[in-house]
């Protein structure tokens, strides 16, 4: 792994994207065979998380990939209030218990790790690898690739419908731009990883009863509006990169 990283950071990033997508796709049929939702998914995600953290820690890459505090005070980010609001999006229609204890435990572990993995892989590995040559291209590619990666939900047995998937992709691309802005200009990936993990994890308590198509569209539009406004604010108030902090 280290040899691949030293040879080509971009190839290293792409390799991890492929590994992540393949394992996530393989996990769904295994979950059905085991009989516990997210059981195999959780196992794969924990393994990937452990390997990636071990690699980053061993090679002293914590600051490079934003696993550190931001040099800026929280007030420069409006105390991360917009991220907190986004993190609760799955609870906007109310709270419900949708899983058995075993399913819930596996879901929570899986979704928590997914938030961390996707941030490190897309905002960390891929963005950093491309930003060495062109930051604008890195922002675009890391954000759009992250969003389009959700197309897997149409073919991996998740049961997601096309319309719902298109909304998911649109929001994922927008949030991708926000998170890469927080990371590149703020110097820390931790707020992104925590928010991402919270969005995913709290989906277990999302109440679908009474969530009409109109309400769903409204919630999606609110998320897009908050994401766009917060991204614009940060691009105008923070330096172009974190190491410009005084």
Q: Could you explain how this protein is built, in words?
A:
The chain is built from nine helices and no strands. The longest helix is centred in the middle third of the chain and has 31 residues, at 101-131. The radius of gyration is 18 Å and the shape is globular. The protein is an all-alpha fold and 246 residues long.
Name the overall outline: globular
Kindly report the average pLDDT value: 90
* Helix share, percent: 55-70%
Order of helices and strands: HHHHHHHHH
**Low-confidence runs of at least 5 consecutive residues:** none
Layout of SSEs?
Layout: H1 2-7, H2 9-34, H3 39-58, H4 81-87, H5 101-131, H6 135-148, H7 162-186, H8 190-202, H9 213-237
Helix pairs in contact: 2-3, 2-5, 3-5, 4-8, 5-6, 5-7, 5-8, 6-7, 7-9
Task: Give a short summary of the structure.
This protein has 246 residues and is mainly alpha-helical. The protein is built from 9 helices and no strands.
Labels describing this entry:
single chain, mainly alpha, 0% strand
